[in-house]
Amino acid sequence: MALILHNAEVITMDTARPRARAVAAEDGRIVAVGSDAEMAPFRSAGSRLIDCRGGALLPGFIDAHCHLLAYAASLLSIDCSPAAVVSIGDIQRLLRDRAAQTPPGRWLRAAGYDETALAEARHPTRWDLDAAAPDHPVRLIHRSGHACVLNSVALSLAGITIATEEPPAGSLERDLTSGEPSGLLIEMNEIVDAAVPPLSHEELAQGVEQAARFFLSQGVTSIQDATAGNGPAEWALFRRLMEEGHLSLGVTLMEGFASRGQLPSTDLAGRLRRGSVKITIKEVGDEIHTDEGELADMVGQVHREGRQVAIHAVGERAVTAAVAAIERALAALPRPDHRHRIEHCGVCPPELAARIGRAGIAVVTQPSFLYFNGDRYLAQVPPSDLPHLYPLGRLRRAGVEIAASSDAPVVPPATLRSVESAVTRRSRNGATLSVDEAINVEDALRAHTGSAAWSAFEEGERGSIAPGKDADFVLLSGDPTAVSADEIAGLTVEMTVVRGEIAWQSRA
Q1: DSSP of 173-193
Q2: Closest CA relative to residue 250, chosen from 103, 456, 78, 403
Q3: How far is CA 395 from the centre of its chain?
Q4: Which domains does the chain have, with CATH numbers?
Q5: What burial letters (b/e) apply to 439-462, b meaning 16+ CB within 10 Å?
Q6: What is the pLDDT averaged over residues 474-480?
Q7: Of 17, 42, 223, 416, which is most buried by a Cβ count within 10 Å?
C-alpha cells in the first residue's frame, strides 16, 4: 500500500531535484518524487493520501551525535536544568520532595544543573545535598555530563574519602580548610557509575520511549549514538528495545575502541547499524590527559582496519592532537573518502580549520550549544578563544563537511532550535557569538540531513528525499528557507514519518 504525501513544499536536499510538490512511498522506501499529478500511478484504493496543506516536507532529521541511554536516564531523573531551577534552594526543594516519596537508602538521581544559571553562581556541595536528603545517596549530574555532585552518603558508597587521590584525568574538589571532598567530581563518572545501581530494564525502556517520542516530536527519524563504551551488550540492548517496540528511531551505534570488530554491521533490516569507532581525548580545562602517541597509534589501527574513527575533541589542544593523529594515519596509508570525524571541535582557529579541510576530516558539531550555553561561554571562555568557538562558517569555507547534533542529554535535541542557532549564533538571552561564523539556512538544514547521513556513510539510505531511499520525512508548518532567521525555531513539527509509517503527529 502506497503512502502519498501531496500538496507540500518538498525540500528534498537532493541536488538533482531540489524541490517538488509530492512524494510516494511503498514498503518503507521512496518510489516517486515530483508533482501531485506524477503521483497518479501510485494511487489505488488502498493508498493512504496525506494532504500536507502547503507545509514543508523535508528528509527526516538526523542527530549525528547523542547518547540515547543517558538521555533516557536523564528524563527519569529530577530535572535540575535552568528551565526548572534558579537556585540551590530550588534543587534542595526538589530533592526533599523526591526523598519523601522514596524509601531511605535508595538512590536519588538528579540531572541538568548549570552553576552559572543558579542564583548562588556556584556548584552545589555535598552539604547542600545532605540538607535536603540526608538518608538517601544523591547524584546530581552537571548539564555537561562531565561532572556531578554527590552527597555524603553517595560519597561513602563510592568509596571517596579525604584520603582519596585524584585520578590522572579527573578532579576531586575539596574544602579549602578541612581538605574534605566537597562532593564535586569532574571527569570521574567511571568511579561513580560503579557505585550507582543501574536502572531496571523496565525503567530504562520507559525512559527510552520518552526519549524517542521527544526526538520524533522534533522531526528526528534516526540518531547516531556516540557513547564511547558501546559494545556487544549495548548492541543487544538496543536490539531488544527495538524489538519490544520502545524505540522506533533508526540507530547507528558507534563502537568503543576496545570493542571494535565485535558488532555486526547491521541488524533488524537496517534499523540498527554499526557506526564509527569512538575514541575520547580526555580533557580537564585546557589540559589533555590522553597520550598523543597512544592516540595516534589507536587512530592508525582503526585506519589500517579500513574503519572510520570519531574522536571526541573540544578544546584547541585536543582538536590539534586529533588532527595530527589522523594526518599521521593518512600519511602512512593514504585512503580517499575515509570520512574520519572530529566530534565537537569546540575551539578551532583558522590554521586548524584549514588542516581539517585539507585532510578531508568531517566535523560533527552542536549548533544549539550556542543558544543553550552561549551566555556561559561569554562569561567563562577566554576572550582569545571566543572568535574560534564552534566556527561553522570558517569550517565550511575550508571545505569541511559539517554534520549537526545535539549531544543529548547535554542539551535537548531541539532540531529547529539547532538550525536557527547555526544561522543566528544567538544565545538564550539574545547575545551573539561571532556572527561571521554563521552559516546559511540551506547549509544548516543539510548539516541535519544529508551531511549527517554522509558522516556515517549512510547517504545512500537517508538524508535526502529521492527514489530508493528510506521513507523518512518531517513535515513542518512552514518553509525554514522562506522565513526570517529568528522565526525558524518557531516553526512546528506537524508530522514525522519513519520508513513510511507515521511515527508522530501534532494532531490526530
Answers
A1: EE-TTT--EEEEEES-HHHHH
A2: 456
A3: 19
A4: 1-60+463-508 (2.30.40.10), 68-195 (3.10.310.70), 281-461 (3.20.20.140)
A5: bebebbbbbbbbbbbbbbebbebb
A6: 98
A7: 223
DSSP-assigned beta bridge partners for residue 309: 277
Pick from 204, 93, 76, 206: nearest CA to 141:
76
- In order of 102, 424, 432, 433, 485, the CA distances from 374 in angstroms are 36, 12, 8, 7, 17
Cell of 344: 565537537
| 293 in Cβ contact with 271 (< 8 Å) | no
Q: How far apart are CA 114 and CA 122, in angstroms?
A: 9
Check: CB of residue 55 under 8 Å from CB of residue 476: yes
- Within a 10 A sphere around the Cβ of 46, how many other Cβ atoms? 7
pLDDT digits (tens, 9 = 90+) for 481-490: 999 999 999 9
Is the Cα torsion angle 475, 479, 481, 486 positive or negative in sign?
Answer: negative
The answer to whether the CB of 373 falls within 8 A of the CB of 411 is yes
**What whole-number percentage of the chain has pLDDT above 90?**
94
Q: What CA–CA distance (Å, rounded) separates 160 from 182?
A: 11
- 139, 150 contact by CB (below 8 A): yes
Specify whether the CB–CB gap between 268 and 243 falls below 8 A. Answer: yes
Please state, in angstroms and rounded to a whole number, the distance separating the CA atoms of residues 345 and 353.
9
